[in-house]
Amino acid sequence: MRALIIGVGQCGTKIADLFSLVDFEALAVNTSKGDLEYLKHIPHERRILIGEGLTRGKGVNANPILGREAMKRDLPLVMRKIGSIIGYEDIDIFFLTFGFGGGTGAGGTPILAEALKEEYPDSLVVAIGALPLKEEGIRPTINAAITIDKLSKIADSIIAIDNNKLKEGDDDISKAYEKINYTIVERIASLLALVDVPGEQTLDSSDLKFVLKAFGSFATVGYAKADAGKVKSLSRLIMKSFESEGLYLEANIESALYGLVAVHGPPEVLKASDIFEALDYLTGKIRGKQIFRGFYPDPREREVEVVTLLSGIYDSRSIEDIIITAKNYAQSFMKAREEAETKKKKLLSGLPDFDDVYPPGETGVSELYDGSFPDVDGITKKLRRQEDD
Ligand SMILES: Nc1nc2c(ncn2[C@@H]2O[C@H](COP(=O)(O)OP(=O)(O)OP(=O)(O)O)[C@@H](O)[C@H]2O)c(=O)[nH]1
Questions:
Q1: Ligand 1 binding pocket includes 10 (Cβ within 6 Å)
Q2: What pLDDT, in 10s, does the model give residues 129-158?
Q3: Is 262 in the pocket of ligand 1 (CB under 6 A)?
Q4: I need a surface site. Which of 164, 217, 233, 269 has the fewest CB within 10 A?
Q5: Which residues have C-beta within 8 Å of that of residue 315, sequence separation ≥ 6?
Q6: pLDDT at site 170
Q7: Does an H or E element contain 95, and which?
């Protein structure tokens, strides 16, 4: 299983940087030079500044039109770099990480996703994006809604992380971002690490690709972890991973088409009866009724870790809130603009032009001006003559 993580914009490159820390191949693409320099783990030759001619390396200030333009202008540069990283061995999944509410990530990610789909038709393109906080205001919400629409037509799946779930903690915002970035990477990296591990009941890359190839619908990754000695019921722990508190998206999991559950821990805790009880429950609950599973008994392990992936989700409160807010705003904004235009037209209609109120001769201007470029000398002479008269 080979994945390439490509971070776009500040949020996206910070997440990609953490993937690089845990040894995934990662690339950072941004319009802000400062943000690229701030990264710690992605090697310098894998950091690409785009749109320098447009923004002079200063970011796009939440303007997705500039973000889109920056990515379009430097797409050949980005695609060349991706090609050189890939070499001769195929990529199974490109994961594009970004913030839905900014400018570089929101504007640039759909452009890059489209180019990757065209150039690498056998690879999956999966978007991993952070949804804006409600308090950030209307602009990030609109950026998110439009980007969701665009990506839903290009990407195979969209793993959306709802930043609003952060508010449940007491941390300041940068700590809270750090925490959620860490969580995203821990979940997805743990899942990817369990794919293609040899064994009887394990997951391979074709299982993961099957689950994520879901026509641009939403996916979410749940997680639960506990000390092996403290696990009273493994089936309860598995269920916890895909319940609301285990997921970073408000979603109706019953609308999911596919699921995937990976359980890793000491063999004495991974009891088949417990695991099948939870899987039966989950299979019955989701609409698509297809759950892939992997069991990873590991005698060295002292903890039990469960990662669940649910995909094909089209029923999500977090997403609906964003789309409806953006649509309502757009409608009322367009209505207000139309009204302002109508009012302006009505107010100003019937006004004469200058020529109607200042007939020629009254001011003397028409006698002085002969239609040619002003002849300053001539004007001065004419004025003098008039004065003399
Ligand atoms: N989860 C998470 N969300 C973040 C983080 N940083 C920013 N965000 C969210 O992402 C959105 C802003 O995206 P950024 O990545 O900062 O913006 P950008 O794509 O770099 O675009 P510009 O700054 O406009 O050039 C906001 O809605 C934030 O809530 C982060 O580290 N983690």
A1: yes
A2: 999 998 899 999 999 999 999 999 999 999
A3: no
A4: 233
A5: 251, 252, 254, 255
A6: 72
A7: strand 93-99
Q: Give the position, in ligand 1's atom list, of the atom nearest the Cα of 11.
A: 15
- 135 CA → ligand 1 middle, Å: 14
Which helix (DSSP H) or strand (DSSP E) does residue 80 occupy?
A: helix 75-86
Question: Could you give the CA distance from residue 4 to residue 295 in angstroms, rounded to a whole number?
Answer: 25
Over the stretch 325-349, which tens digit does the pLDDT of each residue have?
999 999 999 999 999 999 999 999 9
SS3 113: helix
Q: What angle do CA 93, 5, 207 make, to 5 degrees?
A: 25
> How many angstroms does the Cα of residue 208 sit away from the middle of ligand 1?
28
Whether the CB of 104 sits within 6 Å of ligand 1:
yes
Q: How far is ligand 1, taken at its centre, from the CA of residue 314, in Å?
A: 24
Helix count and strand count (H, E) for the chain: 15, 10
Q: Is the CB of 61 under 6 A from ligand 1?
A: yes
Give the rounded distance of the alpha carbon of 61 from its chain centre. Answer: 16
Look-up of token digits 């972890």: 225
Q: How far is CA 298 from the centre of its chain?
A: 35
Q: Which domains does the chain have, with CATH numbers?
A: 1-193 (3.40.50.1440), 352-389 (no CATH)
In a mutational test of the pocket of ligand 1, which residue from 6, 10, 168 has the highest number of ligand atoms less than 8 Å from its CB? 10
With a CB cutoff of 8 Å and minimum separation 6, the contacts of 108 are: 8, 9, 29, 31, 50, 67, 68, 70, 71, 98
pLDDT the model gives residue 365: 57
- 172 confidence band (pLDDT: 50, 70, 90): confident
The token pair at 389 is 């008269």
**Does residue 107 line the site of ligand 1, with CB under 6 A?**
no
In the beta sheet, which residues pair with residue 94? 4, 125
Asked if residue 101 has its Cβ within 6 Å of ligand 1, the reply is yes
123 and 94 Cβ atoms separated by less than 8 Å: yes
Report how far ligand 1's centroid is from the alpha carbon of 336 (Å).
Answer: 29
